[in-house]
Fold this sequence. Notes:
The chain is of the alpha+beta class and 311 residues long. It is 47% helix and 19% strand. It has helices spanning 10-28, 36-41, 153-164, 170-191, 193-196, 202-207, 209-220, 228-234, 239-250, 254-271, 276-282, 288-299, 303-310; strands at residues 44-52, 56-60, 66-74, 77-82, 88-93, 97-101, 107-111, 118-126, 142-145.
Amino acid sequence: MNPDWQPVSDEWYEIVRCSYQIVWHTRSVPSIDRLSPLLDRFRVRTRVFHTGPLCGVTTFAAQPGRGFLHVLRRGEMEVTYQGPGGRMEHRAIDRPSLLFYPRPLEHAFHNAPTADSDFACATLDFDGGETHPLVRTLPPVIVLPLADVDSLGPSLDLLFAEIDNVSCGRRVLADRLFEVVLIHLFRWLLDHTDELALPAGLLPGLADERIARTLLAVHESPGRPWTLATMAHEASMSRSAFAARFKAAVGQAPAEYVTGWRLTIAQDRLRAGASVARTATELGYANPPAFSRAFTRELGRSPRAWLAATE
């Protein structure tokens, strides 16, 4: 034995052990994908319906489950839409911008009759309509100057290159590229929730690394017997700290969010033809009556009455 060797103290051993755990955790935990589980379950379909200049006044009607994504590449315009309380809102757009209407909202573009204006416009059809998780907590309209959204540059370049190129499959490819632009937009929104001052909701929750881990677990396994303790464990937080942080970010208590998410899934499955009994079992309810009571309490109708009203 080396005569210079000295036993390592318990305190030193504990410091080394904790340091190793921190380094191992940092290296082994991958970056989490906060969007794919949502967009896989609740798809968004984009369809280009206009490219080129717009002249005069163009009105875009509100239709159930439909949003709009407009890209102003060149030109200026005034946008009008009905705001809270029925008041008509006016907004001047004087630079290349992206205009995102996540929910049905009638709006109009007022353009000078000039060929210099250049647009690309797409409809967005959300699975679940206004119950789409990423849609229902967003403001009615988001306007972003393209210069402020650097990450959208490459996908917009591809989109406009395809729009300007009259080739076979142009329309189909442009539809797909608009979907790419939308996903990049969601990414950007996740990274800038504070700057946009978004109200509490799903996107601010997903922007919080710890809360996001719990949200993803709930999204992927809605039928698990979720409790405050199990949800806090996913976030590696105490129950009290987690409950307060979750409510501040998402705007709901954890149990309320789980119920809302389960019923969002339930509506999607019932529309797809799943039975009430099967839906209740898959979403963690003890029996169909317990599921029906929760559904009726939240949505005001029994599952079968709700389904009949939506057909």
